[in-house]
Design a protein that fits this description.
The protein has 284 residues and is α/β, with parallel strands linked by helices. The chain has 2 domains: 10-120 and 226-267, Periplasmic binding protein-like II (D-Maltodextrin-Binding Protein, domain 2), CATH 3.40.190; 123-224, Periplasmic binding protein-like II (D-Maltodextrin-Binding Protein, domain 2, 3-Layer(aba) Sandwich), CATH 3.40.190. It is 43% helix and 22% strand. The chain contains 10 helices and 11 strands. It has helices at 2-24, 42-64, 78-87, 97-106, 155-167, 184-192, 203-209, 236-248, 252-255, 272-281, and strands spanning 31-37, 69-75, 92-94, 111-117, 123-131, 146-149, 177-180, 198-202, 215-224, 227-230, 262-264. Strands 2-1-3-10-4-11 form a 6-stranded mixed sheet. It has a 5-stranded mixed sheet with strand order 7-6-8-5-9, with helices on both faces. Strand 6, helix 5 (155-167) and strand 7 (177-180) form a beta-alpha-beta unit. Helix 2 (42-64) packs across helix 8 (236-248), helix 3 (78-87) crosses helix 4 and helix 5 (155-167) crosses helix 10 (272-281). It is elongated and about 65 Å long.
Length: 284
């Protein structure tokens, strides 16, 4: 009787352990949370990303061979979205390169799903601009001048721009004043109005707003397209299904909403250029 009871206890414990392992390696309730930082009204962002979420729900369910739903969670700040990825509050995100590097430094086990491609390219330009009639001719001329940055966590708007300034000896202490204005369009407007002598913004904003040739490009530098990143908790099979679904996405009606032509495979080394820029910006 003792042997029978002992065998029952061991068998039950083994069953419970196997159930625990199964649940630990599967997504809870077949639902994945997609995290974004807010770049528009929440209602507009939900509308913009609904076609993608519908596509991923169908394609990932097929590849994963299990029904998988997706929901969108929007964070008001870069930092809030970054913390959500690091802590596993969200399953995957679309981030700027600098946000990826910062999150990776806090949680090394986050993984890259794919990177965006724009017209066959994964690199594009960041700009440092001045008023068209400005006497400033080079980056070194910015010593003693005022400078407008974008968001304090922005790849182009802060980190890579500061890295470029450091290369020519321009630092925060050598500027007459500086500010983080939050958005690329605000940077453009501040320079146009004469509030700041120079500023950093992305090329697409410059082209969109510079219809009257108000500003000129003082300096350009490379940036890399956005990575899509999975949390450290996403199971390998589900990670592969999600990565494959993104890279297979070819519907132009969906892709054009995010101003991309597609997704391509990615590795951490692709973002080493940004990692080095962030390190150099610490000297600013």
């Amino acid at each position: 009787m003792y042997l029978i009871a002992k065998y029952f206890i061991l068998s039950t414990a083994g069953l419970l352990f196997s159930i625990g392992v199964t649940y630990a390696n599967e997504p809870v309730s077949g639902e994945l949370t997609f995290g974004l930082y807010q770049s528009d009204k929440a209602t507009e962002m939900h509308r913009k990303f609904k076609p993608l979420i519908d596509y991923l729900s169908e394609e990932v369910s097929r590849l994963y061979e299990s029904p998988t739903k997706f929901k969108l969670k929007i964070y008001k700040s870069y930092q809030g979205a970054n913390n959500a990825l690091v802590t596993g509050e969200v399953d995957f995100v679309r981030f700027g390169p600098a946000s990826y590097i910062l999150a990776k430094s806090k949680q090394p086990n986050i993984k890259l799903l794919a990177m965006e491609e724009k017209k066959g390219k994964t690199r594009f330009k960041g700009l440092i601009v001045v008023a068209k009639k400005s006497p400033i001719q080079s980056l070194s001329d910015l010593n003693g001048r005022s400078f407008a940055f974008g968001n304090i966590n922005s790849t182009i708007g802060r980190y890579l721009a500061q890295s470029e300034l450091i290369k020519v000896g321009v630092t925060s202490s050598s500027l007459s004043k500086l500010a983080f204005l939050g958005r690329h369009d605000k940077v453009f407007k501040a320079i146009e109005l004469g509030d700041y002598d120079a500023g950093s913004l992305k090329e697409s904003t410059y082209k969109k707003m510079n219809k009257k040739d108000q500003l000129g490009v003082l300096h350009s530098f490379e940036n890399i397209t956005k990575p899509w990143i999975a949390s450290a908790n996403l199971p390998p099979k589900l990670f592969k299904a999600l990565s494959t679904a993104l890279i297979k996405l070819s519907d132009p009606n969906i892709l054009k909403k995010y101003k991309v032509s597609g997704f391509v495979p990615v590795k951490d080394a692709d973002y080493q250029y940004v990692r080095e820029g962030i390190q150099k910006a610490k000297q600013f």
